[in-house]
Amino acid sequence: MTGHTPSANEKAIFTRTKGLTDTAFTYCAGCMHGIVHRLVAESLEELDVLGKTIGIAPVGCSVTATNFFNCDMLQASHGRAAAAATGVKRVNPDNIVFSYQGDGDLAAIGTAESVHAAARGEHITVIFINNAIYGMTGGQMAPTTMPGQITQTSPYGRIIAQDGYPLRVVEMLATLDGVAYAERVTVDTPKNIRTAKRAIRKAFEYQRDKVGYTIIEVLCTCPTNWGLNPLESADWMRENMFPYYPLGVYRDVKAEGYANIVDAAAALLEEQTAAEAERQAAEAAKEAAKVAAKGGGE
Amino acid sequence: MTQPQREAKRLMKGNEAVAEAAIRAGCRTYFGYPITPQNELAAYMSKRMPQVDGVFVQAESETGAINMVYGAAAAGARVLTSSSSPGVALKAEGISYLAAADLPSVIINIQRGGPGLGTIQPSQGDYFMSTKAPGHGDFKCLVYAPSTVQEMADMVGDAFEKADEYLMPAIILSDGLLGQMMEPVALPPIKDPADCPQHDWALTGTRGKRAPQEVNSLRLYPEQLEATNNERYAMYDRIKAKEQQAEMYRTDDADIIVVAYGASARTAKSAVDLARDAGVRAGMVRPLLVWPFPDDALDSLITGGTAKGFLTVEMSMGQMVEDVQLLVNGRLPIDSFNRTGGLVPEPKAIAERIEKLYKQTAEGGN
Question: Is B47 helix (H, G, I), strand (E, B) or coil?
Fold first, then answer.
């Protein structure tokens, strides 16, 4: 897999990232894991942090990521990557720690771990693959499965009255003070891949600079379990997932003018405290006016 | 057990003594979640860890806490968590992964009565869970069974050392009685965390000095998983041969052998004395670890010993008794005395059962 070695009159203008091992991906045809793996690996290489990075791969298709990333890797149980990442990071705070999780893992069985790692502002980076289905187990309904989407466990399509609504993860996490950066990206076109790369790299930079918790949600396809070919899958994603899960930045404390989550949280609290004082003063004034009006009537 | 150099005694709660002893054993990483009757332990850690540059995290759940333990252990830390019975049940998933990934760690169970929400009163109802099935799949944990506050302090250091030696999780199987009671305790000496074993498999980043490595419990190929299991069980056999520990109390000439561990061994010991006063030669075997179970100590009292019958005393419906039955294997009669709900077996009641069993064995012509 090491490829072609350039001869004397040839010049290498593009090489495989050192962030990936030489092991060939074992993902299905058309699966977007490979692209996302590469973007993560390139970012780590460019930031020169591969030597102090520990990746966490929990249960799902992502468990095989231990074979592909060229850094220390920890396999975690289903849903617990954020807790395991917390353990790794707290022991060695100068390490770069990332988890690579699917939607069932992060947004169903691991919701508590994910929300609380974000709320604590753990200095970790979460790469969240949302393909609206459980991949490894053969295509069951996920917390992010679209309304009406047919899966192995929603044979009549996801019925909202029965199964509830899909989770918008980055929107939800972006409300937490511990989150420094939350963006939703995708990798269906070269342009979107470049945007995704910038987002992933920025998340790792924020982690390195101890800005706060970072999460990048990547909308992906699962041609095998969707029962579509790769091109049809990309179309289906654009048509069905993009409207429900809009791409974009949901939180970026630095862009908001803060150095880190601590400053951002303090500013928000200050703002809320002032607003509350104003509300209480207005209420008191209203009450006083009421009493005065009553007193005048007697 | 190795007797560490002792400081002057001080009066401490079991929950606090075990926490301080863990820090003195070089532990600087603790993850917990509130549950009665172990709350003093986590509270103590929340106060002490910042004083020693340690890590304290109150997790979102017991499941979260044990998976933080998993991450910290993989990063090479000497790491502790604690809970009580229902919370330890929640940790079962993580304990299985710790065992499967060969990661050392210590889990303290300050047992309370079950099943279900049960009671916050002391119990020994987690013997099965600790010794037989601390999680899914084929594995064991070292299981220490302290019966005094002093032993809680001493055993946690032993548990860390043995967990590191065998690369497996160790459980301190205590209970609400020992956790809540105050006793004089001489704390073990302070160990510098830098003197704790450094593991070359720890995930600390390659630092450009070695190839990337992984900690993984996945063994997809049948032969691979079976080979790993065989290897681990061969190690368990070595542990069974080497690590059995029991206190033998007045057993030399004893006809009736009481078997009890932990809190219930305290009153069982008094019962042995009462029975002796009444003219029955009684003795007691007290396992200091319940896994590995002290088979050899019990067997020596049958083969070439004077034992004519066994009485197990437990604060459960009878769990350890099954290990005694396996070992005795029909050679001698076995009776069991069980109290639950938080009730502690009373010496007089136990002594009566000793005398009853003695009469039965005498009549049976054993």
Answer: helix
